[in-house]
Amino acid sequence: MIFKKASYDPFNYLLTSSFSLFKGRTFMTHATKAIYRWLLSDYVKVRYTKALVSIKLHFQFFLVYKEPFWCYHAGHVLGAAMFMIEIAGVKVGVLLYTGDFSRQEDRHLMAAEIPSVKPDILITESTYGTHIHEKREEREARFCNTVHDIVNREGRCLIPVFALGRAQELLQNLDFSLV
């Protein structure tokens, strides 16, 4: 298994599959592995397993049948990666699976890398593919000003966040706005 990023759905699958017949290795970036252990610690005492393999960006690793693969920074959430896989014996050659990615740099993540190797097949995902967002600076200022106004009135601010990457971003924005 190759994990592209840290989020609840794939990790719940990993937890479920660890009790099933799947006995292979699971590849993920070091940051994703660290987040995985933290995410699931609320649910269950997760035993350490040698099947979880931390991988470094740009380093070549090998799958079960010796297919080489390596990953690039995806810029979506901490630890998110795009995976490039060489497929031997097929006309395809090189496949790039981006997962979710972001080409916009923010306070805690650099933008997704553009791989130097050109893939023969591209599989990509998009959350806001056709949506035009307001400028990041305007969105951050509006959010931080609203929180500051509430706190200055001695109010309390509850910010429900359902995505790990969004939580990281909001905390960074608030921290930066206090300086």
TrEMBL record:
<dbReference type="InterPro" id="IPR050698">
    <property type="entry name" value="MBL"/>
</dbReference>
<dbReference type="GO" id="GO:0005847">
    <property type="term" value="C:mRNA cleavage and polyadenylation specificity factor complex"/>
</dbReference>
<dbReference type="GO" id="GO:0003723">
    <property type="term" value="F:RNA binding"/>
</dbReference>
<dbReference type="GO" id="GO:0004534">
    <property type="term" value="F:5'-3' RNA exonuclease activity"/>
</dbReference>
<dbReference type="InterPro" id="IPR036866">
    <property type="entry name" value="RibonucZ/Hydroxyglut_hydro"/>
</dbReference>
<dbReference type="GO" id="GO:0006398">
    <property type="term" value="P:mRNA 3'-end processing by stem-loop binding and cleavage"/>
</dbReference>
<protein>
    <recommendedName>
        <fullName>Metallo-beta-lactamase domain-containing protein</fullName>
    </recommendedName>
</protein>
<dbReference type="GO" id="GO:0004521">
    <property type="term" value="F:RNA endonuclease activity"/>
</dbReference>
